[in-house]
């Protein structure tokens, strides 16, 4: 092509393109020859050491990232259903705050409030009937726990007739297979097992 350029039969751009193609082909040939020599002669010991060091560094980085992930991951202490998430994404909960409320165990429970007027008549282990909104048949339940402090208003703030308005939070464990199928959060009411309200 150089001769054609000398005779002014091709433009300088054509000559430049031809030279660039020649140089590129020459570089590719040299690279292929170097790869052939490396494959023929084998890998150098220092290259193996460099590769081994890079592998160890990558393993160290992986271990560090796994530890970081463990510090940022939350795991429930046991299997269950999420009942409530008190915080939203982006919130900064205070130290020791409850992040997730879980419903655990196989037996569902009802959270009810016992009026002060009948609190002395209800004990842990008593049988109750629970009427769930939208379900015809009542469920049998046992009183699992009763709070010793009144809910809603502190006991020391009420005197005389006001004391009858106190309510005590209790948990009733529902019995039976049908109770396990109930979704969380349904409205309900409870009665004493002996049919006295």
TrEMBL record:
Residues 4-66 form the YbhG-like alpha-helical hairpin domain. Residues 24-43 are annotated as: Disordered. It holds the Pfam family HH_YBHG. InterPro entries: HH_YbhG-like. One of its GO terms (cellular component) is plasma membrane. It comes from the Bacteria. This is HlyD family efflux transporter periplasmic adaptor subunit. It comes from Aquipseudomonas alcaligenes.
């Amino acid at each position: 092509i150089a001769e054609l350029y000398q005779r002014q039969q091709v433009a300088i751009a054509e000559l430049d393109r031809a030279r660039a193609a020649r140089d590129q082909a020459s570089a590719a040939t040299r690279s292929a020859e170097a790869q052939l020599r490396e494959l023929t002669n084998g890998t150098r010991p220092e290259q193996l050491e460099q590769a081994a060091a890079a592998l160890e560094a990558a393993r160290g980085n992986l271990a560090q990232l796994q530890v970081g992930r463990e510090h940022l991951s939350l795991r429930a202490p046991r299997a269950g259903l999420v009942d409530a998430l008190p915080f939203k994404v982006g919130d900064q909960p205070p130290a020791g705050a409850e992040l997730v409320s879980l419903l655990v165990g196989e037996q569902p429970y009802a959270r009810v409030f016992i009026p002060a007027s009948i609190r002395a008549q209800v004990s842990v282990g008593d049988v109750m009937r629970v009427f769930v909104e939208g379900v015809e048949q009542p469920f049998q339940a046992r009183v699992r726990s009763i709070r010793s402090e009144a809910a809603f208003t502190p006991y020391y703030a009420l005197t005389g007739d006001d004391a009858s308005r106190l309510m005590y939070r209790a948990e009733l464990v529902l019995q039976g297979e049908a109770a396990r199928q109930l979704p969380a959060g349904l409205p309900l009411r409870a009665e004493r097992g002996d049919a006295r309200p």
